[in-house]
Amino acid sequence: DAPPRYPLGWLVAVMRSWPDETFLRYSGVDGLVIIYFLRFATNQCFFCTIVGLVVLVPSYRTGRGLAALEDSERGDRWSFSLNTVLNIKCRFAVNDDEAEEVRDNLPLFPGCANGHSDFRFILIVLCAWLFTLRALSGLAANYQRFMHLRHWYLTSGLSSHRDADPVDAQRALTVKVERVPPRLRSRKALRRKFEHLCGAGTVHSAQPMVGDLRELNKLVARRDRAHNALEDAKQRGAKLARDAEKQLIKRHGGDALSRLPPRPRSP
Q: Which of 88, 89, 103, 238 has most Cβ atoms within 10 angstroms of its Cβ?
């Protein structure tokens, strides 16, 4: 179906109608990761907004922490802060001489001059734990779903690795292993090790790739530079030869080339 014509209607239609398998077919694994991230972020933000408006904002609004201030200190500048955690902060009438001693003896949830706000502080901590645990739970669920879909994407259409299309089988069933022990850095040893782990006949081929080839890379780079220089020299020599032939024909006529000795053959 065509998406709605209102702004961002295509996004609503895509997130509502398209299954994850369709995303994989059209955009691959990278596209599915983006969609999963958008879904997770939207869901988490919506949940936190609802809980914040229903639970946290009323507890902030009724804290009356700013109401304990003098009218000259409060003023209109606290209008927005009445709906934030600033409105439930504790204030104590402590002299400067005894301030340090009193602060050292304060309990974990002290009684506040603006009323008992202990449960409000506990409520904030509980909501923070709720948001965190819900986010971690959502991440774990998305990860499990993504792993299953990725496996389906790589192996879709493959009845077994023996009769599958070679290109699809190679894409789906090839693994790359790093930090292989030195004793396994050969085709035979590596294949024997994986067949011991996965079962006899499960390995089609094994190809070790030796790392830390900086010296070899330098030699290859020198070879490439020498090859490029040789090709440039050949092209310049061919151009000079053509220019010389043109000059010879221009001075001595069209049959001047026939009177030249034959060119030596290249070795």
A: 88
258 half-sphere exposure, CB direction, 13 A CA radius: 3
Q: How many CB atoms lie within 10 A of CB 66?
A: 20
Q: Is the pTM of this model over 0.70?
A: no
Q: What is the DSSP letter of 67?
A: G
The residues near 207 (Cβ < 8 Å, ≥ 6 apart) are: 187
pLDDT digits (tens, 9 = 90+) for 199-258: 888 788 888 877 667 888 888 899 999 999 999 999 998 888 888 878 877 777 666 666
The number of beta carbons lying within 10 Å of the beta carbon of residue 201 is 8
Question: CB-based contacts of 155: which residues, under 8 Å, 6+ apart?
Answer: 172, 173
Residue 93: CB partners within 8 Å, gap ≥ 6? Answer: 113
C-alpha 241, offset from chain centre? 57
Condensed to tens digits (0 to 9), the pLDDT of residues 54-92 reads 998 888 887 766 665 554 455 455 577 777 877 776 655
Tokens of 146: 């993504």
Token pair for 2:
């065509």
CA 172 distance to own-chain centroid: 21
Contact 66, 74 (CB under 8 A): yes
Task: Report residue 111 as tokens.
Answer: 């009684």
